[in-house]
Amino acid sequence: MVAAKLMSEQKVSSIAIEHGGKKHIFSMEDLLEFVHAGGDLNTPLHETPIHMIDCLSEAERVLVAFELMERAGRRHLGVTDQAGNLVGIVTYSDILHSIDPSVLMERKTVGDIVARSAPVMFTADWILEDVAHHIKKQEDSIIVVESGRAVGIITAQDIFGLVTSGAAMDQSLAYYMTSPVITTPVNFSISNALLQLREFNIKRAIVVDEQDRVVGVLKQSELVGFAYGSWVNLIKSHTAELHELVEILEQRTRSLEKLTVTDVLTGLGNRRMLHLRMLEEIERMRRYGGDAFSLVILDIDRFKLINDKHGHLIGDEILKVIAGIMESLVRKTDTAVRWGGEEFAVLLANTKLVDATLFANRLREMVEHLSYQDDVSVSISAGVGEYSVNEDESSFFQRVDRALYRAKAQGRNLVEVDAGMES
Predict the structure, then answer these.
(1) Radius of gyration of the chain (CA)
(2) What pTM, to 2 d.p., does this model score?
(3) Residues facing residue 107 across a β-bridge
(4) pLDDT by residue (tens digit) across 301-346?
(5) Range of the structural domain that residue 82 is part of
(6) If we measure between CA atoms, which residue out of 381, 340, 343, 350 comes closest to residue 363?
(7) Which residue among 342, 365, 368, 416 is the active-site one?
(8) What is the CATH number of the domain that holds 412?
(9) Domain co-membership, 114 together with 70
(10) Which of 3-7, 302-306, 345-349 shows the lowest mean pLDDT across its residues?
């Protein structure tokens, strides 16, 4: 009786009991079942039907709790903190109230599922103690009808209050019932019905037809269970399509990312790719040390004359051929880009200045001996530099670019080395 009064005073439907390191629960439903079975309210708690309670972390998602309750048929769950201490109890109704109906069914109506539940209905002259045994669960209720229309309702909460207060239950239903009754039209969608339950803080939908006659009662759990189950089945049936859609979107994302760092004409990287790779190499050297990297900047000699004499189509073909030569020479760790126009750049990872110079000269010689057309002569000039950890990206690029201009000024078809900050 002390436990019942405590629940009534605190306006809760259950209490937690920790005994021997284990967690138990005694609920309103346990009390009603105990009383209906002839139990004495003065019985010690350990002699009543208390149950072990399943627990979940307070960080767990709501749908996980819902699925556990559905699978195990539980009406309560313990909530624990990171240390495993019990910090609260969550009821099935709490979980249902937290689920947003907007994610559930909009097209299904309560009429589609109302036949699953037969309501407990009596006229107002019935004596409560004769029919109270019909209420055992928190969502159970007695519907009081007159000519098939609902005129009142007696809920599990009402019975619980009478039991805990010791009040008599020998009056007619009319004496105890709540009136008027909130009803749910048979054509209401499941989402609208759930919204109605949430708005009025009630646990069952009394479904009525066009003439306001009661055709059934749907518990909150039945509404959510049907809608959630239908939603899960819908997702399962479209799993393959969803996977395919995700793959398409991922491929499109990868394609778009590649476009942002790729030169359309040559297929090499663009200046954005060079910028990103140079930042990576600078960060690597400053954080971990190791071998330096080098940069080669090259330019096609007298490219404007080639375009003017042979046309831009020939010029574009030359750009693509030189790009192909560069790709054949670089390693996977290197980065070859078209900087813009007829200018290219190659970042050579873990490469000292002397080896970068050899690379640039080999590239220059291959372009010089390129057999394109009898009347087309192609050569390149290049500047080479090795990065020093004490400089930033801009200053490094500028000194290699100056080396390129010295190569052009000295007659073209040359490789000029900048050794000013060689380490």
Answers:
(1) 40
(2) 0.44
(3) none
(4) 999 998 888 888 889 999 999 999 999 999 999 999 999 899 999 9
(5) 2-98
(6) 381
(7) 342
(8) 3.30.70.270
(9) no
(10) 3-7
- What per-residue confidence (pLDDT) applies to 244? 66
Pick from 189-193, 311-315, 416-420 the range whose average pLDDT is largest.
311-315
* Whether 33 contacts 160, CB under 8 Å: no
Specify the higher pLDDT residue, 289 or 242. Answer: 289
Percent of the chain with pLDDT over 90: 38
**Strand order in 86-91's β-sheet?**
55-57, 76-80, 86-91
Q: Could you give the CA distance from residue 279 to residue 194 in angstroms, rounded to a whole number?
A: 55
- CATH for 164: 3.10.580.10
Q: Where are the beta strands (DSSP E) in 71-208?
A: 76-80, 86-91, 121-122, 141-146, 149-155, 183-185, 204-208
**Helices in 218-311 by DSSP H: which ranges?**
220-237, 239-260, 271-288, 303-310
In the predicted structure, residue 360 carries a pLDDT above the cut 70: yes
Q: What sign has the CA pseudo-torsion 258, 264, 270, 271?
A: negative
9 is catalytic: no
- Determine the Cα–Cα distance for residues 254 and 248; give it in Å rounded to an integer: 10
Give the tokens for residue 297: 């900047």
Cβ distance 415 to 400 under 8 Å? no
Q: In what order do the strands lie in the sheet with 204-208?
A: 183-185, 204-208, 214-219
